[in-house]
Write a structure and sequence with these properties.
The chain is of the alpha+beta class. The longest helix is centred in the first third of the chain and has 18 residues, at 15-32. The chain has helices at 15-32, 43-53, 58-67, 72-78, 165-175, 179-188, 235-241, 243-256, 261-267; strands at residues 2-9, 91-95, 102-109, 117-121, 128-133, 137-143, 148-153, 195-200, 206-211, 218-220, 224-225, 276-277, 282-291, 296-301, 304-309, 316-321. It is built from nine helices and 16 strands.
Length: 337
């Protein structure tokens, strides 16, 4: 199947964002209501949660709700407050050679469920370039201070009170400048599922935070994250995604090799990091590279690189072909996104 990726440059949210939201909303709406409307929080609950935990983000949320038509369901969805559960694979690591830190990550997910959007905006304090989920949540991204973040699923089945992690990453990039700033957000904003967030800033300071509902955030001084936290709890998921094998491989590359940056990136495009499990929802959809010192990000696929810079104010598109997954197709209405 083919996926059309689009890089959108729109400093203030407006018609370009609205156009993409309108295209994606029918699919998101089905997924969002897949457990029934009674399972979802009210608009007022989401609004109050953002005001309580991320108040600086509230005007942006209200503006996006307006662009989305002001409907009740769309506004609930855009709050990212207690959404349906969703799973992903993913590997990520911080490379620190040559005094130019780099965040590299594989996004392992079902190709039917991806936004396919790189959003380059300036909604608040910082210019931000990021791949999106839910049209404003962040899967991975960077801002103009050189702070880069990305996420991986934490490998635990618990679901609780809190936000979908992509909006937490959005909040970080909109208002934080350093890893220390990001740590304060990661410690204070509740996440509704177990996720690992890795951040690195222009100085090379990094952290990986283990988020889990109902528990304090654990800060790990590690440059590597796959799909478990301190220990494996969901053994079946760990086997399917090979989380331990990928972690060991990355540890080996970072501790026993002195790879130049391009060689380190290339390891993400080969097994065991690169996954072909597209029919099971864990195929590698792209490798993202963030270079904070250069203000540059790239998306890599085998044989192809798509480069973007914060200084570049153009919009563009790239079509990517993935293996046919029709035999094991997962629609966006599936409860595990």
């Amino acid at each position: 199947m083919d996926i059309l990726f689009e890089k959108i440059y729109e400093p203030a949210a407006g018609p370009l964002w609205q156009r993409r939201f309108d295209a994606l909303w029918p699919h998101y709406r089905k997924w969002y209501l897949s457990e029934g409307i009674a399972a979802r929080q009210t608009y007022l609950a989401g609004h109050r949660a953002i005001k309580a935990h991320m108040p600086e983000l509230l005007p942006t949320y209200e503006r996006l709700c307006e662009l989305a038509g002001g409907g009740d369901i769309a506004s609930r969805f855009l709050s990212f407050y207690r959404p349906p559960p969703y799973l992903s694979g993913c590997s990520q690591a911080v490379w620190l050679g040559n005094n130019e830190p780099m965040l590299v990550r594989n996004y392992d997910y079902d190709p039917h469920l991806i936004d396919g959007v790189i959003l380059h905006s300036r909604w608040n304090s910082h210019a931000v370039i990021a791949t999106t989920d839910g049209m404003w949540g962040v899967i991975d991204g960077m801002n103009d201070t050189g702070l880069a973040v990305s996420l991986t699923f934490g490998g635990r089945r618990i679901v609780g009170d809190g936000f979908g992690v992509p909006i937490i990453l959005r909040y970080i990039l909109e208002f934080c400048s350093t890893t220390q700033d990001a740590i304060e957000v990661l410690k204070s904003v509740p996440c509704h599922m177990a996720y690992n967030v890795t951040t690195v800033d222009r100085s090379g300071e990094y952290i990986t935070a283990y988020l889990c509902p109902g528990a304090d955030t654990v800060l790990a001084h590690t440059r590597i994250s796959t799909n478990h936290q301190e220990n494996v709890e969901w053994h079946r998921h760990a086997q399917i995604t090979a989380t331990l094998e990928r972690e060991r491989f990355l540890l080996h590359r970072l501790t026993l090799h002195d790879d130049p940056p391009e060689k380190f990136i290339a390891t993400f495009l080969k097994p065991p990091l690169y996954s072909t499990q597209f029919g099971r929802g864990f195929g590698t959809l792209y490798t993202a590279v963030y270079r904070p010192a250069q203000g540059q990000m790239e998306l890599h696929w085998p044989g192809d690189v798509w480069t973007h810079a914060l200084a570049d104010t153009t919009s563009s598109k790239r079509r990517v072909r993935y293996p046919d997954t029709s035999n094991g197709k997962v629609s966006r209405t599936a409860q595990s996104r």
